[in-house]
Amino acid sequence: MSAEDVNNPGENTPAPDPSPSPEPTPSAETAEPTETQTPSAPQPATTIGETARPPSLWTWGLGRRKTAVARVRLRPGKGEFLINGRNVENYLTCHKDQQAVLAPLKATQTENTLDVHVNVRGGGESGQAGAVVLGVARALKKTDASFESVLRERGFLTRDSRMVERKKYGQRGARRRFQFSKR
Q: Which of 167, 102, 169 is nearest to 140 (CA)?
């Protein structure tokens, strides 16, 4: 290889064939639909490795309260209400929290017509109950837009933004100071 070959590497490569042979394509008027062509409905696009799934019957809603996050799913059913795979009465021990979780369903009169499945993490019992209430209300709003006025009127669609205040340095807590000693 000479110095000229290194500077001009493209000279020794063969040129592409200038006469490509295109396949004849039938015109739109003469083409008859075959098994692969459907003139009426477009085919849904699927990605590689995924199978086509039917549309889901579930309606999703996300709720947050303090540090708790609840992912709520609703579907037509008999009124089953599960939180982390357990019944409401078994999961929430406080009667007030049990009533609060069911309140959005009672307000919209859908307690016996929808199944509710909830995954909730973080926080304590009261925070988790508040997160579930917001998640159920948001899912109900997606299910039927006419529920929004009832849910908003009763405050179920309002996110409670109160969080625990951080501890400050030089103090015992967020506001509590160390005991003062005069001497």
A: 102
For 47-65, what is each residue's pLDDT tens digit? 555 565 566 789 999 999 9
Is residue 68 assigned to a domain?
yes
Structure tokens, 154: 């009763």
- CB 71 within 8 Å of CB 118: yes
Q: What is the pLDDT of residues 2-46, one digit of tens each?
A: 555 555 555 555 556 566 555 655 555 555 555 555 455 555 544
Give the residue carrying structure tokens 């309140």.
103
**pTM as predicted:** 0.68
**What contacts 167, CB < 8 A, 6 or more positions away?**
173, 174
Q: Would you give the DSSP letter of residue 141?
A: H
Amino acid residing at 58: W
The CATH number covering residue 135 comes to 3.30.230.10
**Residue tagged 């500077």 (tokens):** 7
Closest CA to 154 of 106, 110, 107: 107
